[in-house]
Structure formats: structure tokens, C-alpha cells
Amino acid sequence: MELLRVEKLSLNLNGRQILKDLSLSVKSGTIHSILGPNAAGKSSLAYVLIGCCDYNPQSGKIYFLGEDITGYPTQKRAKIGMTLAWQEPARFEGLTVKDYISVGIKENKPGLVEESLYRVLLEPKDYLDREVDKTLSGGERKRIELAAVFAMRPRLVILDEPDSGIDILALDNIVNMIKELRSQGTTVLLITHREEVAEIADKTSLMCSGFIVEEGTPEEVGKYFKEKCIPCPTHLYPAEKDKEKNKGKK
Amino acid sequence: MMQDYKYMLDAYEEAGGNPEAFKNSKVAHLVIHQNKVIGKHLVEGLDLKPKETASGIDIHLIVRKGTIIKYPVHLCFGVLPKEGIQEINIRARVEDDSEIKLLAHCVFPNAVRVVHKMNADIEVGNNSYYEYNEVHFHGFEGGVEVIPKAKIRVGNNSRLVTNFSLLKGRVGYFDLDYESEILDNSSLEMTVKIYGYSDDRIKIKEVGRLIGESSRGLIKSRVVVKDDAQSEIINELVASAKNARGHVDCIEVIQGNAKARAIPIVNVTHELAKVTHEAVIGRVSKKQIETLMARGLEEEKAIDLVVSGMLK
């Protein structure tokens, strides 16, 4: 079943075309990774999908479970089951980890906050009463963001570079948690520029210069990425050219 | 007087205080309504002498050398009628090797024209700890003028902590002026948290002088103003001794037509001293709001959560 469908989405910010007629289909219950180099527009896509106020697309549609949500504000998208874990999560002075994670919890399940902290290898007794402020390291803050998503149990989570700022030892744990999100019924749209993380996906879309240039299994897209994108000095033009070529063929 | 005492404790509870503390024989307390002492209890090692004056109370407080006051001393100052004046003059001396923590609640629940002035002169000895927490609860008329002034001197190897919060009810007119100086290996932490709205006026001036070697200082302000409220914060840290370190941290959030001004002053006169500062004025961060909205909170609730966290 298709959970998310994006049709010909275009985004222009300050005179720069960030997304160009981007289309995407994400199936329910899958991990769908968006792979691409820096400045490909991956994070902008995430902000458009969650409805951030400065990211209103000029054209295109977003459907969630068949419902057109293009004009929905962020909180309405969250209420129907979408959320986003930011690449660099915000800090909140005076707000405890417990309160922060509790914000998104809909079900009345005792111990869910603690359980979600365990999932990201954080000891609840050490973290529940700490503030989500600058006293947390970047890695700790990211794990708390993932714990909050886990506790929220959304239908779809967009994870924007969950692997950045995470040490190599914790990376396995983050990968396992993403898989667990899927097994608890959450569909994951995983944004990354690391192939080894994209590998866990059921499907991968390769993004370059604001549109999807290739889709397939992680292996197929990884091969394309290595052959076409890595040799490209800018990571941009060959992929764009291919896209243009493919347009003609289709 | 019994009636006033009951009303004062009701207001105290509404301000967030726990009135049970006034029944506990281990906890020293002092309750003052306008210029009358209506409740007092002392503990060993604490010398507290209140003297009624025409417009308020003079308080002489001494913590004897080597005394550790285990439980916070509870103070409750208030004016219950709509109009009145209360001038509190405090002279406090914390002798060497001693510790005291004071928790003062100032309550003006019905104020339409009330003036509350406090002049404190505090001396903290060596190897000592002095903490003064002041919580205000005002009514919703905005008719309160609060003018607290303090001069604090801290000896060697000691610690000074002051926390002022005015988060319930209208601020009215507020003009705080605290000045402290600390000697070798001592530290000061001065924090003010205020929420102003309507046409409230807030002026804060906090000065810390790190004159002792390896002294430490932190001056922190968190102010939220909305509607037509205005705030001005002057935070000054002076470091004039070897290895003195300080930081000024000021955040003001404005909403609606409110206006906010922050003037951080850092003054370093020793090459081995260092003071840093940060001041932020603006609306609540969009990213913070959108993060909470992405968890399902409405925008208003998201802003409230961010602001209440900041002022907590």
C-alpha cells in the first residue's frame, strides 16, 4: 500500500530552485532511503514534507494515505501520523528529556519514555530529568530525538541524517532502531548521504540537484552512485544530464 | 492578625510556596504583612531580628560562625490590601564557615497601588554559602511597583547564589539593582526570570565584580515580554584578578508589540582574566516551534511550552 506520494514537487527559495518536479512514492511498512550528495535538496524535501513554514512548494502535491496534505500545517500532518527527526535537533532550555519525549506520545503506556531511551542506549535514570539544552552533546541530542520518535509511534517518520554526529559504535544501534521502527509499523523515510546506512532500506531513491535521478534497491542505486556520481567533481551535472536523457527515453 | 496570617499563607501557597513549612519546627521563618511581623520562628545559630518601622521592617540577620542552617529559611513578605507601601531593609551577615539558604515569597495578590522596596546589604564571610531565592506573586491589576536593591560582598572560598522570579500575575513596574563583589576562589550566580505583559515595565541591572583570584561569575537573565510590555536588562561583569572567569547570559523573548533591550557589559582588566557574554532577543525560535508542532502540538501550545521551559 502506498503511504506517501509526492507528485512533481517544486520548491524555489530565494530565487534558487531547490526541488525540481520531484516525484516519489513510499510504500507503507518499508524503509525508503533518500541518498544523495550534500546540497542535493534532501533536507529541503524533508521540510516540505513536514510542512515547515518557509518551505511552501510552488507546485506539486503531497498525498498521505491518499489524502492531499499539501496545504496542511505541520501539527495537522503530525496528528495524522507524520513526523520529522531533524538533522540538528533544536534545544529547549528548561524542558526535561522526559517532558520532551512525552510531547508526542498518544498512547497511555507506562514506561514508554524509559523504554524509548533504552532503545537509543541512554540510561533513563541519567537522562529523564536532564534538560534538552546545550548541556547535551550533539550525539546525545540526536539519540533523544530518535527516542522521541520511537515513543510517538508515527505512521511515517522522516529521519534527516540520523547518522550524522553519531559515533561509529552507536551507529549499529541507530541502524537497529530504524529497523525496529519499521517492525513496530512505522514507515521510515531515511535521508542520508552514507551508503552503508542507505543499505538497510527496502528501496532507495538517489537525489541530485533537486530531483530523483535513480530508484531501485540499495545495491542498484549504490552501484549507480559509485559509477556516475562519485567520479563527478561536483556530484551534480552527470546525474542531471542522465535525468534529462532518461526523460527523453520515457 | 490571625486573619492576616491566614490570608498571607493562602497567597504564599498561590505563589507556589508550601505553607506546611511554617508549621515545621526545624524550619525558620518570618512572615511580614506591610510593616507588621505576624509570624516568626528561629533555629539555632540563626539570629534574626525584625524591627517594625513606619513603612516596613528593618531586618538584622546573622548566621553565626560555623553554623550550617540545614533547611531553607522561609520568608513571606506581603501587602494584602489594594494600596500600601512596604519597605524592607535587610542587613545580613553570614559569618565564616557557615551556610544559609533563604526562600522569600513576596505576595501582593490584590495590589492596585502597592510599592514594595527592598534594600539589602549582605556580607558573606570566608568558606561560606549564601543563597537567596525570591519568588513574587502579584495580582492581575498591574498596580505594583517592585524596587529591590542589594549590595553583596563575598569573602574567600565562598559561594553566592541569587534567584529572582516574577512569573505569576502582572509585573507592574519593576526595577531591580543588584551589585556584588567576590574575593579569591569564590563564585557568584545571579539569575532573574520574569514574564511581563500588558504595559508592564521591567528594568534589571545586575553587576558582578570578580575582584578575587580564580573567582567565578555567572549572570543570567530570562525575560519574556508580550503585548505592550517593555524590558531593559543591563548585565555587567567586571573581572580584575588573575584567572577570574565569568559569563553573562541574557535571553529576552518578545511577542506582540513588546520591546526589549539588552546591554551586556564585560569589563576585563587583568590579562589572565576572561569574561564571555551572549545576548539573544527575539521571538521564540521557529525551529523549536516546528519541532514541537511535528509532535502534534498546536503553535500556541508549542510557544507556551518553550517559554515556560525557559522561565522554569
Summary?
The complex is a heterodimer of chains A (250) and B (312). Chain A is an alpha/beta fold.
Walk me through what this model shows.
The complex is a heterodimer of chains A (250) and B (312). Chain A is of the alpha/beta class and 250 residues long. Chain A is built from 10 helices and 12 strands. Chain A has helices spanning 42-50, 74-79, 97-103, 112-119, 124-127, 138-152, 168-183, 195-198, 218-229, 237-249, and strands at residues 2-13, 16-27, 31-35, 59-64, 67-68, 82-85, 92-96, 131-132, 156-160, 187-192, 203-208, 211-216. In chain A, the strands form 3 sheets. Chain A has a 6-stranded mixed beta sheet with strand order 6-9-10-3-11-12, with helices on both faces. In chain A, a hairpin with a 2-residue loop joins strand 1 and strand 2. Chain B has one domain. Chain B is built from 3 helices and 19 strands. Chain B has helices at residues 2-14, 286-293, 299-311; strands at 29-33, 36-41, 46-52, 56-63, 73-78, 83-94, 99-108, 113-124, 129-138, 144-154, 159-168, 173-182, 187-196, 201-210, 216-225, 230-239, 245-254, 259-268, 274-282. A 10-stranded mixed beta sheet of chain B has the order 2-1-5-7-9-11-13-15-17-19, covered by helices on one side. A 9-stranded mixed beta sheet of chain B has the order 3-4-6-8-10-12-14-16-18, with no helix packed on it. Chain B starts with a helix and ends with a helix. The chains are: A alpha/beta (250), B mainly beta (312). The A-B interface holds A 50, 52-54, 73-75, 77-79, 82-84, 86, 89-95, 99, 103-104, 106, 131, 148, 152 and B 222, 251, 285-288, 290-299, 302, 305-306, 308-312.
Primary descriptors:
heterodimer, A: 250 residues, alpha/beta, Rossmann fold, 6-stranded mixed β-sheet, 4-stranded antiparallel β-sheet, 12 strands, B: 312 residues, mainly beta, 10-stranded mixed β-sheet, 9-stranded mixed β-sheet, 3 helices, globular
